[in-house]
From TrEMBL:
Residues 1-19 form the signal peptide. The keyword Cell membrane does not apply. It holds the Pfam family PAP2. This is Phosphatase PAP2 family protein. Keywords: Signal. Transmembrane segments: none annotated. Residues 122-244 form the Phosphatidic acid phosphatase type 2/haloperoxidase domain. Gene3D superfamilies: Phosphatidic acid phosphatase type 2/haloperoxidase. It comes from the Bacteria.
Length: 276
């Protein structure tokens, strides 16, 4: 773990040192700090109640657990339902550790002076990425009831298979949140310094390591199936990359305007203007 983190820091530091210009480059994003930072902060705070509500909705009782049959699980996911419970607690702790490290990983961007100069704007965009991720997660997890792998496990006592947060397996929020964070950091770094080619691929490869470790340990903890983890990874990557890309697009089209036009002959049209 320490080796992986050291490699990640060295890679980012060397990339920044190699690409550091004499003057501060302009931000590649168009961000409205006033409402993105405050609005996203409020929504992230409100999500606490969403998670509490989801845990209650995802409750399983003994009768529901009795109806679960591992044979009905698809062949790809089925092996996770029969893991040795002895390793559940350790894997749970590891997944939480890797998740927390992932959430904090964008702080490494502050090693860069240009990025540090835009820290508040980027904080607003980072919060927005997690808000979008949370909305997608809640929309899915509240509507899809999938029992966690541990609820099928014959080696686990019934009291550990019933209760709250037992039927919200799809999809993995831990993996999704982790991937949003690390891919956001990779996206911002490569956008600011216009990094392409093998260096860009290397940075995103490093960014994929923490979410993979989160996913592996969530499965070993009996909390998620492989398909839950893969789905969480893809959605998290889309949020971590997509939100900065959307702000980048907004900056490129900031001078583009559309205006309806009506002539004296009552002919209607659309005027397109672009300000340089």
């Amino acid at each position: 773990m320490k080796i992986r983190l050291t490699l990640a820091v060295l890679l980012i530091q060397s990339t920044i040192s190699f690409a550091q210009p004499d003057s501060l480059p302009a931000s590649p994003y168009r961000i409205h700090r006033s409402y993105e930072l405050a609005g996203s902060g409020v929504l992230l705070g409100a999500s606490y109640f969403g998670f509490r509500k989801l845990d209650r909705v995802a409750t399983l009782d003994a009768a529901e657990v009795a109806k679960l049959n591992p044979v009905r699980i698809n062949a790809f996911d089925r092996p996770i339902a029969s893991l040795n419970p002895a390793g559940f607690e350790t894997a749970q702790k590891r997944s939480d550790l890797f998740l927390n490290l992932s959430i904090a990983s964008p702080l490494l961007l502050l090693l860069s002076k240009p990025i540090r100069h835009d820290a508040l704007d980027l904080l607003g965009m980072y919060a927005t990425a997690h808000v979008v991720n949370n909305l997608l997660y809640f929309g899915t997890a509240f509507s899809i009831r999938r029992a966690r792998p541990l609820t099928y496990n014959a080696l686990l006592p019934l009291d550990q298979k019933t209760g709250p947060a037992k039927s919200n397996s799809f999809y993995s929020g831990h993996v999704s949140f982790s991937t949003t964070a690390t891919f956001f950091g990779a996206k911002v770094l490569t956008d600011y310094y216009r990094i392409r080619g093998w260096k860009r691929a290397a940075i995103f490869s490093v960014a994929a390591v923490p979410p993979i470790l989160v996913g592996v340990n969530r499965m070993k903890a009996g909390k998620h199936f492989p398909t839950d983890v893969l789905t969480g990874f893809l959605i998290g990557a889309a949020c971590g990359i997509g939100v900065p890309e959307w702000h980048k697009f907004r900056r490129k089209t900031a001078g583009l305007a559309f205006r309806p036009e009506v002539s004296f002959a009552c002919q209607r049209g659309l005027a397109v203007t672009y300000s340089f």
